[in-house]
């Protein structure tokens, strides 16, 4: 089972050195009786993935600090399949914060069932708007990267890997949960800080996935934000509160 999977991944060059991003055939060698030896990268002569010995909490802290090594470990050397669930949960958090702000701006406290029904649909509308904004943001990034570096996105698997990396890097939106719990008034500064953190995570995910310099990912994010703000302006012209 596990041995066959490891051999298959090695044959596909699925592993990456977290230091130099070169492909690796194995992460460690098992000498039986609990004796493991981390493989050494043939390119940089450093351990291929030191994080396989680390506690998940340490890995999470390094990911929060946006270390490229931690991102490579998560994206290339582990099999995480929570991208869709994480994305939906983050969008729910964002929609809830927007919904609360919308309710705060409304002075109508009528307990009528029709009013409660309308408020419930306001939440669904906020979720839909947040989903469309994030989709347009990702589309802007993909278009820019495909235009600037078409050789990086030749295969369908490259698009899927980058999409998964972007979805995982939106985990910063989970900070909206303590914002809801601890803050009574949602200050623009708090929400702006979360937004900046998510953008930094997105930039690091693009850089690690495609092995780019620091400038091009931010260039792609800039155009993604332009497209996202275009969608926001469209909603505002339609008379929707976003």
From TrEMBL:
Membrane spanning stretches: 123-147, 159-180, 215-238
Q: Which keywords describe this protein according to UniProt? A: Endoplasmic reticulum, Lipid metabolism, Lipid transport, Membrane, Signal, Transmembrane, Transmembrane helix, Transport
Q: Give the bilayer topology.
A: Multi-pass membrane protein
**Principal localisation:** endoplasmic reticulum
Its annotated compartments are:
Endoplasmic reticulum membrane
Q: Which domain of life is it from?
A: Eukaryota
- Signal peptide positions (record): 1-20
Q: Which residues form a coiled coil?
A: none
| One GO CC term, this protein | Golgi apparatus
Task: Give any single GO term for biological process.
Answer: intracellular sterol transport
The family database entries (Pfam families) matched by this protein are listed as:
Arv1 (PF04161)
Q: What does this protein do?
A: Mediator of sterol homeostasis involved in sterol uptake, trafficking and distribution into membranes.
What family does this belong to? Answer: Belongs to the ARV1 family.
**Protein name as it appears in the record:** Protein ARV
Q: Which organism is it from?
A: Toxostoma redivivum (California thrasher)
The gene name reads Arv1
């Amino acid at each position: 089972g596990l041995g066959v999977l490891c051999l298959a991944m090695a044959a596909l060059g699925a592993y990456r050195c977290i230091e130099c991003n070169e492909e690796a055939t194995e992460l460690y060698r098992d000498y039986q009786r609990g004796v493991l030896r981390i493989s050494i990268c043939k390119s940089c002569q450093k351990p291929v993935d030191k994080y396989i010995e680390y506690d998940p909490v340490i890995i999470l802290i390094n990911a929060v600090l946006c270390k490229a090594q931690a991102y490579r470990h998560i994206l290339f050397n582990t099999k995480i399949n929570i991208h869709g669930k994480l994305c939906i949960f983050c969008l729910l958090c964002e929609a809830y914060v927007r919904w609360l702000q919308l309710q705060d701006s409304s002075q109508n406290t009528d307990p009528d069932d029709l009013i409660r029904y309308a408020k419930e649909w306001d939440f669904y509308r906020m979720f839909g708007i947040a989903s469309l904004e994030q989709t347009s943001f990702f589309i802007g990034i993909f278009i820019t990267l495909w235009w600037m570096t078409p050789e990086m996105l030749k295969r369908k698997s490259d698009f899927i890997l980058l999409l998964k990396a972007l979805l995982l890097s939106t985990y910063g939106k989970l900070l909206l949960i303590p914002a809801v719990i601890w803050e009574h008034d949602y200050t623009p500064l708090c929400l702006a800080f979360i937004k900046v953190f998510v953008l930094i995570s997105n930039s690091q995910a693009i850089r690690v996935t495609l092995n780019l310099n620091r400038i091009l990912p931010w260039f792609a994010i800039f155009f993604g934000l332009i497209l996202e703000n275009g969608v926001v302006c469209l909603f505002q012209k339609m008379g929707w509160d976003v």
